Amino acid sequence: MKKHFVKTSNFLSFIDGIQAVEARGAAEASMMLVFGNAGYGKSETLDHWATQEDAIYLRANVDWTPKYFLIELAKFLRTDAGGTSEQLFARLLARIASEQIPIVIDEADHCLHNNAAVLEKIRDFADRTETLVILAGMEKIQGKIARHPQISSRIARAVEFAASGLEDTRKLCDELCEVKVDAALVAEIQRSTSGRVREILNAIAIVESAGVRAGKAIVTLEDVAGQALTHDWQARRPKLVKLGGGR
User: What is the DSSP secondary-structure string of 198-232?
Assistant: First the structure.
C-alpha cells in the first residue's frame, strides 16, 4: 500500500472546525473537541495534522495526573521536567505562549477522572496562552465534558467523526491501493467494514495482495470471493466476500 494521508470528509470537517475556532470571537474559547467511535480515523488525522503544524501531540494514559501530564508535555517539548509542579507549569507556559504551539490531546477520555483534574490543567494552558487546544475522545466524551461547564464553555467547536461513506471508501482505495479496485468491490469493502477506516485499510491490503499475486491491474469482486476482507468482532468470525452482496 502507498504511504499517503487521504483527506476524507472527516478530515475536511476537522479542518473546518479548526478554522472556526481560529475565527472565534471569545479569545478564551480556544478549545476544540473531536469525537466519534473507534476506527473512524481520529488518531491518524490528529497525528497527521499535528506533524504538519508542528503541534504538540500527546496520547493520554488512564493513570494521568496533572503532574504526570506536565512531565509528558515537558518530554515532548524537550524541556527540563524538574522542580515543583508550579515551576514546571510556569516553564511550559512560557514556552507555549511565546511560540504559540497548538496542543492535541488524544484519548482525552482518560483526563476526566478526579473531577477532570487533568483537563483543568490543560484548560489553564488554553486560558493563559489562547493557543488552539484540541481534545479527542470516544463518542460519549461530549456529554461527559458537558458536566464541567468551566471546560465545556471553552470549547468553540465540536467535530464528530462519522463512518466513511462510499465516496470516502473509493477515495481511500484510489489513493492507497497499488492496484485498481473495481466499483463493486469498493462497495463491498464499504459495506463489510461498516465504514471503519481502520478496517477499510486492512481490506485494501488484502485486495492489493490478491491483485499482485494474480498479476491483475484491476481487482474485481469475483477475484476475492470467499476471502475475508474484515472480521466481525461481535460474532468472532471473518466476514467472507460473497457474490451478490450477501454475507
Answer: HHHHHHHHHHHHHHHHHT-SEE-GGGGTT-EEEEE
Specify whether 123 is located in the same domain as 233.
no
Q: State which residues form the domain around 64.
A: 9-160
Taking the whole predicted model, whether its pTM rises above 0.90 is answered as no
Same-domain status, 114 and 216: no
Residues paired with 231 in a beta bridge: 238
pLDDT at 93: 97
Q: Clarify whether residues 40 and 142 are in a common domain.
A: yes
Residue 86, number of CB atoms within 10 A of its CB = 9
Mean pLDDT, the chain, rounded, equals 92
Q: Which of 133, 160, 187 is the last residue of a domain?
A: 160
CATH number of the domain where residue 174 is located: 1.10.8
Distance between CA 12 and CA 17 in Å, rounded? 9
Residue 119: C-alpha distances to residues 26, 33, 133 (Å):
20, 12, 11
Q: Give residue-wise pLDDT tens across range 122-170.
A: 999 999 999 999 999 999 999 999 999 999 999 999 999 999 999 999 9
Interacting residues of 40 by C-beta distance below 8 A, sequence separation 6+: 10, 161, 162, 163, 164, 195, 196, 197
Q: Indicate the pairing of strand 228-232 with strand 237-240.
A: antiparallel
